[in-house]
């Protein structure tokens, strides 16, 4: 990883893969080693591998995945039909990729290499075979998001999350394909990401199912059961002269009363689940 400045506009770096000296123009960041063809990313004086993951999804297929996610259980009912999808953008988003090796095995840590509002990016799963060397001139440069989080910051983050940097066996910059969808629902705008190699949907702010009706129902259930118990005890004491018999009668009534009271509550829960 050594490097030296050759002139104002050129410098020489050591290829991470083959160790050859590679001459780099000052404004170059995405480099291909002329000796072994490895794709490299140059961040000041740090050279790391530069990978890209290919997209397996066309825009309409990605939208299909988004619609299925919208039809799921955590989003508001019928979001797949009611949401208006405004547009989508396709891009390759950069993440810092660290592979660590210790007694417990290999682990992979990801950190966004550009600013993003979607924190789920850290939870991405990257299948090992999916990493391809980034080939210059193969991809539309406009779709490649340039990293603005430096390698040093990513290392600091890694250290802060409890990783011993001596255990890092591989570090790389990885460009991951995404469709970013913009949609409107209920007068608000939302975005969702579809990772275009696996089709996985990522979103942290979306029209969620409201929990309020369920909370109200829960409170109502407690009140209903308490009132039912009171009625049973009152009846027990009205119908019996001895308090021992009164308590027994109350317990007996409770078995049936609880059953009766739970019927409308279950019906209400079912109706709420259908509607919200
Ligand atoms: Zn090389």
Highlighted features:
32% helix, 5 helices, 276 residues, alpha+beta, binds zinc ion, nine-stranded mixed sheet, 12 strands
The secondary-structure element order is EEEEEEHHEEEHEEEHH
General shape: elongated
Q: List low-pLDDT spans.
A: none
Helix coverage percent:
25-40%
Q: Which molecules other than protein and nucleic acid are bound?
A: zinc ion
* Strand fraction: 25-35%
Mean pLDDT comes to: 86
Radius of gyration from the alpha-carbon trace, in angstroms: 30 Å
How many beta-strand elements? 12
Major beta sheet, specifics? Answer: 9 strands, mixed
**How many H/I helical runs?**
5
- End-to-end separation: 57 Å
SS-derived structural category: alpha+beta
What is the number of independent domains? 3
3D structure, described in words:
The protein has three domains: 3-45, no CATH class; 50-202, no CATH class; 212-275. The chain has five helices and twelve strands. The protein has helices spanning 59-70, 79-82, 151-160, 212-239, 243-275; strands spanning 3-5, 10-14, 21-25, 30-32, 39-43, 46-52, 84-102, 105-112, 132-133, 168-185, 188-195, 201-202. The strands form two sheets. Strands 4, 5, 6, 7, 8, 9, 10, 11 and 12 form a nine-stranded mixed beta sheet that branches. The protein has a three-stranded antiparallel beta sheet with strand order 1-2-3, with no helix packed on it. The model has no long low-confidence stretch (mean pLDDT 86).
